[in-house]
Here is the input.
Amino acid sequence: MLAAPVSLLRQSMNEKISAFLSERIAANDFPSAVYLVAEKGEIVYHDALGNAVVTPEVIPARLDTIYDLASLTKPLVTGLLMVRRIESGHVEMDVPICEQRFSFRNSPLADLTIRELATHTSGLPAWRPLYLLAKSPLISELKFLIGQQVVRRDLGVEYSDLNFIALPLVTEPICDTTFGSEIFERLKLKRTSFNPRSYGFPRREITASELGNEYEKQTCIEKGYLQPPATAGGTDKSSAFRDYQIWGEVHDGNAYFMGGVAGHAGLFSTAEEVFKIALQFLPQYTSLLKPETCDLFRTNFTKGMNEDRSFAFQLASTKDSTAGTSMSPESFGHNGFTGTSLWIDPVKDRIFILLTNRTHNHPLPFVNINSVRRRFHDIAIEELDRN
Here is the structure.
C-alpha cells in the first residue's frame, strides 16, 4: 500500500508546543529543536526553534536541518531492514544465527537469535568501547569481540548498542556505503544518509554536536578502559577520542570507529524524512512491508520482564517510558543519545518526532531530557485531541 500523501494545508507550528520547547532552550537543555506531529498520515504541527549551531558560528535551526539521529538508527534502518529480511524468508527470527549463516558457526554469537538481538534479551551488556578493544573494525573481528561479551540470556531486557551492531552482521554489508540505501532510495529521501558530508551536505545544514568526545572519554575512565591522564603511563589510548568540534560526522564513538556506518548509530536526517520512514511501521501506509508484518512493532515480546519491547522498539507500556501519560499502551518508540526521539501510536494513528542536539555547546553532564520528551508528547496529544 502506498504511503498517504502528506498534506501541507494543515502543517503549522503549534503555539503551546513551540513555547514549551523555547522555554527548554532558554533553560539550556539543548540549543535547538525541530518537532513534527502527524495524524492519519498528515503533518499537523511542525516547527524549528533555536540554533542548530552555536559555536564556532551561530546558525539557526530550520525545518530541513539535518540531525545526528544517534540510536534512532536502530529502528529506522537496522530494524526495518531486518524485518524486510524476515519477511522475504532470507532469515528467521527464532532460529539460532549459526543455523542460518555458516560464518557464525564458530562465533560466540552462534546460539543467539535475531529476536533476542532485536528485543535486547541476548545477554549482551549495554556498551563496550570497541574502538579501544578492537584492532580494526573488520567484521570478523567485531563478530568475535561482541560475542565474547555475552553474559547471561536469562537476565531480562538489557538495552545494548552491541545488539544492533551485531544484527546487521547477520545479513548486511555493515561497513558498505549501501547500508540502508534500499530504504532511502525506495522512499526517495533526499536528506537522509550516513556520513552526510561525504554525500555533499554542507556543514551549515547539519546540527553540531559535542566538542570532542569528552563524555565517552570520561565514561571509559570511570569503567576502567582508560587511565586518567595523570596516571596513564604505557600505551596512550587518548588518540581514540576526537578533540575538535564534532559537526557533520557521527557523535557516537563506536559508529565513528566503524567508518560512520553502523547498525546502532550513524544515521542523519530531517524531521520530515524521519516521518516518511516512520510511516513504514504502520500497516495503512507502508510501502516497504506487508501490512501484517507491522504487527511486529507493536507486539510485546518481553512480557513479564523488566521492560516491554517489540521488534527494535520500546513500548509505551514500559514503566517510565518517554511516551508520556496519554499514548496508547501499544505505542512504540525510541530515543537517541544526541537528543532525538520518535514515538508512534498505531491505535490513534499518530507520529511524534522531536529532534534536538543536547550534546552541543553544553558542559558535562548533558541534561537528561526524558521529562521534556514526556511533556512534549502530552502537550501534543492535548492539542490534537482539542482540535
Q: What stands out?
A: The longest strand covers residues 42-53. The chain has twelve helices and twelve strands.
